[in-house]
Amino acid sequence: MLIFSVFKTLTDQRVTVELKNDLSITGTLKSVDQFLNIRLDAIEVLDQARHPHMMAVKNCFIRGSVVRYVQLPSEHVDTQLLEDATRREAANSNKQR
Amino acid sequence: MSSLQGYVDRRVLLVLQDGRAIVGVLAGYDQKSNVVLSDSKERVYSLDEGVEEVPLGLYLVKGDMIILIGEIDEDIDRSTDLATIRAEQLPPIRY
Amino acid sequence: MDASPGIQEPFDLIRLSLSERVFVKLRGDRELTGILHAYDGHMNLILSDVEETIMIVDAQDGASSAQGVVNVAKRKLEMLFVRGDGVILVSPPSRT
Predict the structure, then answer these.
(1) Is the ipTM of this complex over 0.90?
(2) Which residue of C has its CA nearest to A77?
């Protein structure tokens, strides 16, 4: 839930999604869901010359399960807030047991 | 899963786990991102010849097999001569 | 439980590493070091000031894979989300 919330705060920011097939796609984050499936607009594929497959694709839906990394815009990530939220979530999940 | 909402009835590109690329009209989808494509064709890429389009017809693709679904810009796609494109197939997922 | 206070389960070790530099081993012969800012129960991570190391084994012609040449590629990333399914281990900072 925490990570899902983080992605929601990054809506409309430019991110680079690196997939498990080594494809890297930069785009504007339009939406994310509970599975961390990602919608990107105005996409650019890294090394377009080698990968012309997506030439006519301007926006796409990426399945969360095939994501390896997402490079985030660090100026839009409040690391102190993240750490506090992570500690809070960890404390809550301990209480439930 | 609101993310596929806007793609229904649009021409889309599906990239699959094994690296295959399939184009078709998105007829429907569900929670697990299983999708139904109508009038679908596989685009077979190679370095030796242009892109070959193999007609597949109506296809149901299991969500687990899908890497991404992209909306095809019809103008750009029409202005692209597939016969002139040389490229390797996209790499398959390794983990 | 007479381990050090506050550590009852594996995830506590990760919790105590928040805002510290950690080492992460990933599938696909990849390793990361970076400052840990967030994690969840899937071991999804958010790290900053990341250095990634990728080991690429080039199998030599006519040689067994054990004799392949290992190339190491490194790159730096400012802020990175790492999907948990690729994570093999997370190690807290070495206290040296």
Answers:
(1) yes
(2) C79
